[in-house]
Specification:
Elements (H helix, E strand, L loop, with lengths): L9 H11 L2 H6 L2 E4 L3 H10 L4 E4 L1 H28 L16 H7 L13 H13 L1 H18 L4 H18 L5 H9 L14 H16 L6 H12 L1
Parallel strand pairs: 1-2
Helix pairs in contact: 1-3, 4-5, 4-7, 4-9, 5-6, 6-7, 7-8
């Protein structure tokens, strides 16, 4: 039975993988998908030297979605600070859905991570109010939708990267400090943002990892690692 590799130190993992697989096997690997971890990309490039390293599209989208949520959080913090300085005898303003702006901001987190066609009526009403008073959130969300559409479009890699470059320019034009991580990601990972070559993702690996975490929590941790792996193989192999 194969044993998991403890830790994430690139030198140790590279040594173990090279020892476990011959050069002829590693040479046949044509593509490796991974997250945005520099150590994981280094491992993939060193071990599978003949393969294209691809940053998983969902991790790229996650970086952008986190930036959108940071805008929401900043607005809410500013609103809370203003409320603390407001006359407490004045009741907070409620909007057409019966909620205060503070409540709207708090309850919009997951809605802003979803596609519009998945919004319930109450969510749509809430977000429409939010976008009316905070256009920056509307612009940021629109770019999240545009990014998702680019990844889902069945177009050539050249055309897709052209659309990605135009999208990146729009993000830059927003001029919001919360998008520094997005800009940094695109600058640092430009050579590995090549999802459009074969549209490969590590979604299956992420799904399996989620199952392992759930199974581990149900077992309240792992005492006998070998037996734990044996049970995983029996359940999910």
């Amino acid at each position: 039975m194969r044993q998991p590799i403890p830790g994430t130190k690139s030198d140790e993992i590279i040594s173990i993988l090279i020892g476990a697989m011959g050069k002829s096997i590693r040479r046949r690997v044509k593509e490796v998908t991974c997250d945005l971890s520099p150590s994981m990309m280094l491992i993939a490039a060193e071990v599978f030297y003949n393969a294209h390293v691809v940053n998983d599209r969902f991790h790229v989208q996650q970086v952008y979605n986190e930036a959108v949520d940071e805008i929401r959080i900043d607005i809410r913090r500013q609103l809370i600070a203003e409320e603390n300085n407001r006359n407490k005898s004045e009741p907070p303003v409620t909007y057409s859905n019966g909620e205060t702006m503070r409540q709207i901001l708090a309850r919009s987190k997951h809605t802003l991570m979803m596609s519009q066609n998945r919004w319930a009526d109450i969510q749509r009403h809430r977000v429409n109010i939010l976008f009316k008073y905070y256009p920056i959130l509307k612009a940021a969300y629109s770019l999240a939708v545009e990014l998702r559409k680019i990844f889902n479009s069945k177009i050539s890699p050249t055309k897709a990267m052209g659309r990605m470059n135009k999208w990146y320019e729009k993000v830059m034009a927003l001029g919001n400090n919360n998008f520094r991580s997005v800009i940094k990601t695109f600058k640092n990972h430009a050579p590995t943002l090549n999802y459009f070559r074969r549209r490969a993702t590590n979604a299956s690996a992420e799904a399996f990892n989620s199952k392992v975490k759930i199974f581990r929590s149900q077992m309240r941790g792992v005492r006998d690692r070998d037996f734990f792996i044996f049970r995983l193989v029996k359940l999910y192999a």
